[in-house]
């Protein structure tokens, strides 16, 4: 039988060869392909993950975002349960400045595309969560971000390698068993694990994540809510009109956001129960440590609150357990409840991370948040950064780092850090002559959104050049990393620096503060240091502070004690442009620190300075002597004449002609912006 006959019997020749080689193939060990390598891996396609993806893409970096859901923003498809966001969507400010408008836009991510502003997605002041899902979908789609959907990362570990950027690679294993290798891991998974307190009877408690949102299910019921945050009050607000009463139990007193100035505390939109409590309409708030309590269920299915130690006295039946009202007949929670609902917030999901990453110390606070430095890098693993809500431990109860309008800027700061560390791209900066220092600071404190929202966390830094002739301006640098500024940014701070921060008054924020007290605002510049509302504070250092100085700074100080400090007095309109009240004191402070004159002058004033002074103001040195002074225009000349600052040479010329002296020569009449009446008078 020839080859052709064999082909008819066995089919294609390759099939016969396969059967012949099959035993040998079985004897060889299976060869697994090497994991796909990427420079940057981002876990989670929520707002923080997409924001980082945008910056990586714009920089042309090798990255991928891993998302377990089929679309971005999966958290918002379910939460908040009652669908109303508490992030402000202020569509109108009366200003055209895009950066200023972001101060009051709490939902938009940063991008170059003006279509991707949240105001185009909702007209509501407190938008629906569905609008956020739609917005994030478009953000990822229109910008072409590299997101791997339906990819669940089940395990993350380290693989040490001396050739890796950080001395190790991160190995991510997905639910299909595929491995992914990264040089840098950026965790943006948010807080997704419901916080639970273990106490006797906790099995009877319904969770915020699963309780019904239909008010009809609570008709005529007695309800106990455990917790005192926005999720607890959001739940109460939904059923307030249908229940017999709602009691709310927590170990701490209620924290109102308008008193604490922390957007994560109770917002006015959810606080209807405070009205019904204080106006004695059956609802109420109680304080007690949940770990000291127990919940027991009677024969009728009602729930009773008792003390934990009563249950520890012996194995008693549910109907025989001692209740507090047995000893004290006016015990506040002596009534029976139909429902007990847990609304205790969320924790970070540590379950997928190998212990070698050392994300948690096991402490109480680190159960909620991973351990990170002020640079948002993990304390346990170099090259692992935590972004977004999960990074809020850096500024918990202090600033807005746990929310979109805050972490969009902290994510950008992390990206700038990575650009310098791994790609030798220095932190972005602009250079200016020293005469522009006052105007540069004034512009930023009046426009910048990152400074405004991340007060006390991100600050602008001005690096002075030699002899204070020029400066370099760096925006939104993590303040607590100031001692490492040169390492992080690639910029040098050898001749002194200014740090520009936004701060509230030190005694103006707290759950026990009366923020509506009479005379709460400060209006006089000499009292600016006592300003209560958010206002700019400028720190001057002759030398870059050391790590020890930053770490052991005075209590309640944002930074180490400076060489000099200046508060710009608070302003009701948050508009720090008043020439006398805001700009003049700032300029004089800067001049005292630099021992120089920062005023601007007309060209002729500079000319007179050259004749009468040994040292010229920087403006004249950098402008007039380079033929860049304020040159004359007809309108500027007329303004000078009308204000009395300049002589009107046309009138002088007519007088000379009337007296028979002839017109002024060209040297006598230098043109419109001519000799000021007072050469030392500040013109601008």
From TrEMBL:
Q: Where is this region: Disordered?
A: 657-684
Q: List cellular component terms (GO).
A: endoplasmic reticulum lumen
SUPFAM superfamilies hit by this protein:
FAD/NAD(P)-binding domain
Give the molecular function GO annotations: flavin adenine dinucleotide binding; monooxygenase activity
Q: Does the keyword RNA-binding apply?
A: no
Q: Which GO terms describe its biological process?
A: ERAD pathway
Which cofactor does this sequence's record say it needs? FAD
**InterPro entries per UniProt:** Auxin_biosynth/cation_transpt, FAD/NAD-bd_sf
Q: Which domain of life is it from?
A: Eukaryota
**Residues of the signal peptide:** 1-26
Q: Which UniProt keywords apply?
A: Endoplasmic reticulum, FAD, Flavoprotein, Glycoprotein, Oxidoreductase, Signal
User: What is the purpose of this protein?
Assistant: Probable flavoprotein which may function in endoplasmic reticulum associated degradation (ERAD). May bind non-native proteins in the endoplasmic reticulum and target them to the ubiquitination machinery for subsequent degradation.
Quaternary structure, from the entry: Interacts with SEL1L. May interact with OS9 and DNAJC10. Interacts with TXNDC16.
Q: Which family does it belong to?
A: Belongs to the FOXRED2 family.
What is the name attached to this protein's record?
Answer: FAD-dependent oxidoreductase domain-containing protein 2
């Amino acid at each position: 039988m020839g080859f052709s006959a064999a082909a008819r019997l066995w089919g294609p020749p390759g099939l016969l060869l396969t059967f012949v080689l099959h035993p040998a193939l079985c004897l060889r060990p299976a060869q697994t392909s090497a994991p796909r390598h990427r420079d940057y891996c981002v876990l989670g396609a929520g707002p923080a993950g997409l924001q980082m993806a945008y910056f990586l893409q714009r920089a042309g970096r090798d990255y991928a975002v891993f998302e377990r859901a089929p679309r971005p923003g999966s958290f918002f498809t379910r939460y908040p349960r009652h669908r109303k966001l508490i992030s402000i969507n202020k569509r109108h400010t009366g200003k055209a400045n895009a950066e200023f408008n972001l101060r009051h836009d709490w939902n938009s991510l940063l991008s170059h595309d003006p279509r991707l502003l949240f105001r185009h997605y909702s007209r509501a002041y407190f938008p629906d969560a569905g609008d956020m899902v739609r917005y994030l979908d478009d953000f990822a789609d229109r910008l072409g971000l590299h997101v791997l959907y339906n990819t669940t990362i089940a395990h993350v570990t380290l693989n040490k390698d001396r050739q890796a950027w950080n001395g190790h690679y991160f190995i991510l294993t997905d639910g299909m068993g595929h491995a992914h290798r990264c040089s840098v891991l950026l965790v943006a998974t948010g807080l997704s694990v419901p916080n639970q307190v273990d106490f006797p009877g906790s099995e009877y408690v319904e969770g915020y994540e699963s309780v019904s949102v239909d008010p009809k299910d609570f008709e005529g019921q007695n309800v106990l809510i455990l917790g005192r945050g926005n999720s607890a009050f959001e739940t109460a607000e939904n059923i307030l009109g249908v229940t017999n009463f709602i009691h709310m139990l927590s170990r701490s007193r209620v924290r109102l956001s308008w008193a604490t100035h922390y957007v994560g505390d109770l917002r006015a939109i959810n606080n209807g129960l405070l009205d019904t409590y204080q106006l004695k309409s059956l609802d109420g708030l109680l304080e007690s440590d949940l770990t000291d309590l127990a919940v027991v269920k009677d024969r009728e299915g009602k729930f009773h609150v008792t003390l934990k130690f009563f249950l520890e006295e012996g194995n008693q039946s549910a109907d025989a357990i001692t209740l507090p009202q047995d000893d004290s007949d006016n015990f506040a929670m002596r009534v029976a409840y139909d429902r007990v609902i847990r609304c205790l917030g969320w924790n970070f999901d540590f379950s997928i991370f190998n212990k070698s990453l050392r994300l948690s110390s096991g402490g109480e606070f680190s159960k909620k948040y991973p351990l990170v430095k002020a640079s948002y890098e993990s304390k346990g693993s170099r090259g692992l950064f935590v972004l977004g809500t999960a990074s809020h431990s850096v500024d918990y109860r202090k600033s807005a780092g746990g929310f979109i309008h805050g972490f969009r800027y902290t994510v950008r700061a992390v990206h700038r850090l990575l650009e310098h560390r791994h790609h030798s791209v220095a932190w972005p900066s602009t250079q200016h002559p020293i005469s522009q220092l006052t105007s540069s600071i004034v512009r930023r404190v009046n426009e910048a959104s990152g400074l405004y929202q991340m007060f006390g966390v991100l600050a602008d830094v001005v690096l002075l050049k030699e002899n204070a002739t020029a400066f370099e301006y760096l925006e939104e640098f993590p303040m607590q990393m100031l001692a490492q500024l040169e390492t992080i940014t690639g910029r040098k701070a050898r001749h002194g620096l200014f740090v520009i921060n936004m701060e509230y008054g030190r005694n103006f924020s707290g759950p026990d503060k009366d923020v509506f007290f009479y005379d709460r605002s400060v209006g006089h510049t000499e009292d600016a240091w006592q300003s209560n509302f958010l206002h700019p504070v400028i720190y001057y250092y002759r030398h870059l502070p050391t790590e020890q100085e930053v770490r052991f700074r005075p209590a309640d100080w944002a930074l180490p004690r400076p060489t000099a400090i200046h508060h710009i007095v608070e302003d009701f309109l948050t508009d720090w442009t008043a020439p006398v009240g805001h700009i003049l004191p700032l300029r004089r402070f800067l001049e005292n620190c630099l021992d120089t004159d920062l005023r601007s002058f007309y060209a002729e004033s500079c000319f007179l300075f050259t004749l009468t002074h040994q040292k010229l103001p920087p403006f004249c040195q950098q402008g007039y002597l380079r033929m860049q002074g304020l040159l004359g225009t007809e309108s500027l000349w007329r303004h000078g004449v009308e204000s009395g600052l300049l002589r009107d040479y046309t009138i002088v010329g007519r007088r000379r002609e009337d007296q028979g002296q002839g017109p002024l020569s060209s040297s006598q009449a230098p043109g419109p912006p001519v000799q000021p009446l007072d050469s030392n008078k500040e013109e601008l």
